[in-house]
Amino acid sequence: MTAGEKFYSETELCEIHHVSRQTVRQALAVLERQNILTKKHGSGTFVQTTKHEKAKSIPTVGVIATYFSDYIFPSIVTGIERELAKNNVAMQLTATHNHVAEETRALQAMLAQDIDGLIVEPSKSGLPNPNAALYEEIHARGIPLIFFNAKYPQLDFPLIAMDDKEAGRCAAEHLISLGHTHVSALLVFDDYQGQLRYKGFVECLIAHGLPIPEERVLWFSTGELDSLFTLSKERVKAMLSTSTAVMCYNDKVAVELLDFCKKEGVRVPDDLSVVGIDDSSLAERCEVPLTSVSHPKQKLGEKAVALLLEMIKTGEQSGQGYLYKPRLIVRASARAIQRG
Q: Is the dihedral of CA 287, 289, 292, 298 positive or negative?
């Protein structure tokens, strides 16, 4: 749209983007503060500057996250937002809810807005990537891109993340150090983080000469978490019947497991030790404070922005990624095994 052109109404924007009027009003307020739109009393909202003019004065970075309203995601987005604001860079934020189709739409929208760089958390990174052509277009246009938390292994863009393989190893090592030899794992298969955490878990068990029976590793998709302990109740019970300890994909899974154990009369940590990953706010708030592997959260967001801005400044599309070394936060959900 060109300067002086009348912009869409709130009703039209709600219909186009399938969002609430409150969301539209918040977005319009941001565009007004950036002097992109201006309101004329009694006439409506008008474009004040063109996209080209905006790009010259205010660089814009697109941020595509799987989620941004709960768990550890608000902290990561806060780190991104603060670092961008500090450098006078505008942010376009979109959530995919870990749906590949939503990622497709988000990438297409970002490309249409002529953004200066992208920070992306991939959706279902453990599965083949159907958006490869869009990422190739991003590369062809010379738009710098950083993946955070995970990446599609086949794409050569830098990654800022926690060392997920080390996180799995760290969790397993703690449980083994407490004397547990029958250790299980609850892991997602459609995010690459789950596969890396499994790899660290397995390598730790092998290093200690412990067996890895298939019945003690329960895989599920990210979309199955809400129903995992109901629809897969018997699978979980069978796994726990041969286990004294469980490593969980993240704290959300661990908290669900704690609730399940309480209902089934399994005492944590007396009967079963549980370790989560991410050290989210859930870890401290749950009934049995959760031992968990820390995630850098806000620092990760800040680091992603710092690297992306350096890439924008130098005009390079490649950059040195960074993996944060995790550390264990010990609480009450895991204890040394009691020998009879």
A: positive
Task: Give yes or no: residues 63 and 138 share one domain.
Answer: yes
Q: 3-class secondary structure for 90-140?
A: EEEEEECCCCHHHHHHHHHHHHHCCCCEEEECCCCCCCCCCCHHHHHHHHH
Yes or no: say if 247 and 275 are a contact pair by the CB < 8 Å rule: yes
- Looking at the fold, whether 142 and 186 belong to one and the same domain comes out as no
- The verdict on 183 and 288 lying in the same domain is yes
Give the separation between CA 287 and CA 301, rounded to whole angstroms.
30
Query: Which CATH number do you get for residue 107?
Result: 3.40.50.2300
DSSP type of residue 158: -
Model pTM score: 0.83
pLDDT, averaged across the chain: 93
Domain count, the chain: 3
For residue 209, CA distances in Å to 176, 177, 186, 203, 216 come to 11, 13, 21, 10, 16
Q: What are 230-266's pLDDT values in tens digits? A: 999 999 999 999 999 999 999 999 999 999 999 999 9
Residue 98's nearest CA partner among 72, 129, 121, 131 is 121
CA–CA dist 292, 326 (Å, integer): 10
Exposed/middle/buried for residue 312 (C-beta within 10 Å: 0-12, 13-18, 19+): middle
